[in-house]
Design brief:
five-stranded antiparallel beta sheet; mainly beta; Immunoglobulin-like
Amino acid sequence: MTGYCYVLWWEVTGVNSSRLERSLSNSTLQHQLTGLTSVTSYTVLLAARTVAGPGQTTASTVSTGVPPELPGAPSNLVISNISPRSVTISFRPGSDGKTAKSQWVVEGQVVKMDGEEEAWEVVYQIQHVPGTQLLEIPDLTPFTQYRFRMRQANIVGSSPLGGPSRLIQTLQAAPDTPPSNLTLLAATQTSLRVRWKPLLDHQYNGSPDAVGYRLRVRRVDGAGKEQLEETRAAGGERGKAAGSSSSSREASLEGLDPWTQYLVQIQAFNSIGAGPWSSGVAAHTAESVPSGAPVNVSAEAVSSTKILLKWAAVLGSQKNGVILGYKVLCAEKDSIAPPSVSVVVGERSGTLLFGVLEKYTLYALQVLAYTRLGDGPPSSPVLTRTKEDVPGPPARIVFPEVRLTSVRVVWQPPSNPNGIILGYQISYRLESADPQRWTTVEVGSNARQFTVTGLSPQQNYLFRLTGRTALGWGETQEALVITTERRGTRHASSPFALRIYILLSIFLRVWTFFTLWTVVLCV
């Protein structure tokens, strides 16, 4: 509704001639009457009025009293129920100033450990409730010395301040806030060094001798267990400025995994308990050598001189850095010689074909990964034998018994059998016979000698010996033997020695013929 106002009338009850009138705007909701006579009854009327005239009137009768005064100061303050963050104050109210009390105001003063007194300030205020003589003062700081004083207020104003209470100290509590400015200083392969700013005096909430800091570090990927590291606060930290560099603290977190992302947090604690954890700070340990070997290593012989090796990459948690490549170690089993090393560049899984290996030989193969800082551990040896091939020549041929018509042949297995020897073949013929016509005898794999009979006396015989594996007959060993009664062991001759022997035999025969002919002519 618009276009209206309020009209207020008041008069001494029963005396119409004393009526006074006051027009009020339509936004006015209260008005104070002044200039009244004390201990007098008044009638007050109120109505809304438009251009058409006033509306319905509302009336009320009130009596004035004696003039109000400032209230008296509260006294006899007694402090009880002391806790870390609140106390209870009991008191004796001062005089009300001949009017209703409106408010209680409590001021507090902090007294530092060194006796320095801070300024008084309002710590609590509340509207008056009739009969109030106890107040609970909240939101105090733990482990802090306080004094308290009070005043009360009424319609006239505030009372003087009452006398201060005794000095009390609130109880200890766990810290409310974590240390600030947590930063990473340095990282090694297995440790992180961090720095932070300690709590200020009022943030300890307890005795400085009981305050410490707890660091928590855990892997970002969730693997492993979290690690806690505690360090005690030095007593000299208290009272240092928040911006002072000398107030910084440092600590090392040891025993971490190399090349791993960690989240570091910090909290303060005292004898009562621990405060909240700070926000996490990400930190990365330095690169190292791999702590694990490639996995799924397998080998397969593809021929008598080649082996194919396969492997998968090192597990992620064991890489400890950027894998630059792999080194493959190859050696004959039980060999005292150092293994050969082949390098395969790249981090991914790999294969490597070994060639020019010994035939039918057992090899031990290993793979290791390396970073820029060095080699990791090798994988467990994988034993693989190259495939069979035809054997090499028997190692040694001797003829310990040579008769006019028989020869006993003795031999040793090939130095390079290249497989499992299944048997031997002894071939022989007259040196002067057709090179393609050999008499052949086969014996078992365990045979080491054989006697050949039915030979012609005083003849040169060429012997050939070879072994056999599943892949066939191998290289031969040859020797030249003369059937004779002369005793002695006949050793196998090399092809060069055989040629020299044959030439000397021919030379001696020719020399003997010419010598005899010369003798006949001389006679």
